[in-house]
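Postdoc handover notes: sequence design on the structure in folder B. Input tokens:
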């Protein structure tokens, strides 16, 4: 086996191997050659080559998202590292473990005019679990170091002792970084200075690294379940709101107990991956009719919970956030072993437990409470469901009509990856099949890496993957297709409405040239040439019949991935969506 001759490169490879981190996403470079050699020459690792660093980072994020374990990223020095930042921020807010491993110049070569050299230490300071800045090995390129920076050897007892001190420091930093990533599910940055020569190899490793996962400080406190249950048992209105959640994470018995209590309503989002006939999966379809009602105040007071119980990640619906910020609950409990955001400005009580552990203890002390709360809102849910069905039969070809049909067409057991902006918001309006596993980058909610994330997620996923994306998201991340890891069963549905359609829905819409240019960013592009370049099967549709025909064969087995592009009317989509909320609100006037 071949190893880099540089001790710190050997140490990083050793720590990854010891901690069973097998998936390594590598972008090409020269300064990172010692790391590329170490990982690519060891069959223990699965190495993936992704040229574009931004795509590489989201690709790794998708892989880590699926496996719920750390994935390492390797890049060269300079601006290459900066391209990781969008995915690092997403991982930070989505609690996804990434190991960002960057090669760097030695400190004495920073800010002297060398190429591909920037200030890399602590570069992700505001959005990182830990920054490990390793020291430069002095046993490598010693003569060059003495010639160019002799000051670093002053006061050193001996070369051997000096290198032992470097090794000890680096091991300590690496242990903290790996512990943070693995235990806290956080991205970490490991920055390693390398002096030339970079390509020298040895046949046996000299690595004497000591690798261990250190137990990090725990901040859990004892929870008085009896006191919580007392408040719960006397409350007539309890609202459970669930954000981003991995599939099959919450035990079904706990979901059933929530549904059986008439004083509880459960609002779920598409990304919550929770399903029950008595849950409320389209939050905005409940809130929007109240906003338009002559009885707005009365209905919002009726919906206002005594207790708000939340778990899972970030919430998509702006309407539920606006409602709960104005009509605050008396108590807000958030269950999460790591963090709790005060999303609703209501003095959140953070219950630092894994959600199943919480419910297992909590339900020992609770009783079902007789209340009209669930029944009242269940009737309203049935009303909007009937109105939605009627509305979908009367509307013309549009984003909304297309979403209804394509979501219904998805086969069971698919992984569904959703892009942000309009895509995730349209998906929120419909009931999805319980067998689908749904994901979306909701940590920062950016459009910048949806395709790359979906492809990375699909690599080790046994079931087929469907990405539903808008045109801006798709073209923005088109380099995400530039790799050799897209499986033949990978599918993309591209909704092309000629620009950023969401900006025709949001407040401030204007039918002006400036609005079209600088907000909607209108365009006439399609994906046909990209599909030719990347050898993907391609179909474009522009009406109801052609979409139905395309969907009837879209999921059939193929030798190459497929893209179905749906061209919808840009100037009509927003009118149909906004009219939907008017239509389902008819009984409110």
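Designed sequence:
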């Amino acid at each position: 086996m071949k190893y880099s001759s540089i001790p710190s490169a050997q140490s990083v490879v050793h720590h990854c191997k010891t901690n069973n981190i097998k998936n390594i996403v590598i972008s090409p470079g020269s300064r990172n050659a010692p790391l590329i050699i170490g990982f690519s020459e060891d069959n223990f690792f699965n190495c993936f080559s992704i040229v574009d660093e931004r795509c590489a980072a989201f690709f790794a994020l998708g892989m880590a998202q699926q496996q719920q374990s750390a994935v390492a990223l390797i890049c060269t020095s300079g601006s290459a590292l900066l391209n990781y930042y969008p995915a690092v921020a997403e991982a930070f807010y989505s609690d996804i473990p990434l190991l960002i491993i960057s090669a760097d110049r030695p400190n004495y070569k920073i800010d002297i005019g060398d190429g591909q050299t920037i200030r890399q230490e602590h570069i992700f300071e505001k959005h990182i679990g830990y920054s490990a800045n390793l020291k430069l090995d002095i046993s490598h390129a010693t003569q060059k170091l003495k010639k160019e920076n002799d000051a670093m050897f002053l006061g050193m007892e001996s070369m051997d002792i000096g290198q032992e001190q470097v090794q000890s420091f680096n091991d300590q930093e690496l242990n903290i970084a790996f512990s943070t990533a693995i235990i806290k599910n956080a991205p970490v940055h490991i920055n390693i200075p390398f002096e030339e020569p970079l390509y020298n190899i040895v046949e046996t490793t000299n690595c004497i690294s000591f690798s261990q996962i250190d137990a990090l400080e725990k901040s859990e406190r004892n929870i008085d379940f009896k006191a919580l249950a007392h408040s719960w048992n006397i409350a007539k209105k309890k609202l459970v709101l669930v954000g981003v959640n991995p599939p099959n994470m919450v035990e079904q018995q706990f979901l059933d107990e929530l549904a059986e209590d008439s004083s509880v309503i459960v609002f779920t989002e598409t990304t919550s991956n929770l399903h029950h006939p008595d849950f409320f999966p389209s939050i905005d379809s409940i809130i929007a009719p109240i906003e338009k009602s002559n009885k707005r105040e009365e209905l919002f007071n009726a919906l206002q919970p005594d207790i708000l119980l939340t778990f899972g990640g970030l919430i998509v619906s702006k309407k539920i956030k606006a409602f709960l910020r104005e009509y605050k609950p008396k108590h807000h409990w958030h269950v999460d072993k790591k963090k709790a955001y005060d999303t609703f400005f209501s003095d959140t009580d953070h219950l630092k437990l894994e959600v199943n552990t919480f419910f297992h203890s909590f339900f020992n002390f609770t009783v079902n409470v007789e209340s009209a709360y669930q029944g009242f809102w269940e009737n309203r849910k049935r009303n909007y469901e009937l109105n939605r069905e009627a509305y979908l039969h009367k509307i013309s070809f549009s984003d909304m009509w297309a979403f209804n049909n394509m979501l219904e067409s998805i086969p069971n057991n698919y992984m569904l990856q959703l892009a942000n902006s309009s895509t995730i918001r349209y998906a929120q309006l419909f009931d999805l099949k319980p067998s689908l596993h749904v994901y979306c980058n909701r940590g920062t909610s950016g459009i910048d890496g949806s395709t790359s994330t979906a492809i990375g997620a699909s690599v080790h996923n046994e079931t087929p993957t469907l990405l539903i994306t808008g045109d801006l998201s798709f073209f923005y991340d088109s380099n995400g297709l530039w790799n050799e890891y897209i499986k033949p069963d990978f599918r993309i549905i591209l909704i092309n409405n000629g620009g950023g359609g969401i900006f025709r829905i949001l407040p401030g819409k204007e039918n002006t040239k400036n609005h079209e240019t600088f907000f909607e960013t209108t365009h006439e592009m399609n994906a046909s040439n990209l599909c030719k370049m990347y050898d993907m099967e391609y179909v474009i549709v522009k009406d109801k019949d052609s979409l139905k025909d395309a969907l009837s064969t879209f999921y059939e087995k193929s030798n190459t991935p497929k893209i179905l592009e749906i061209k919808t009317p840009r100037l009509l989509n927003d009118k149909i969506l906004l009219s939907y909320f008017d239509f389902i609100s008819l009984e409110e006037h």
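Context for whoever picks this up: DSSP finds 22 helices and 19 strands in the chain. Don't rerun without checking with the PI first.
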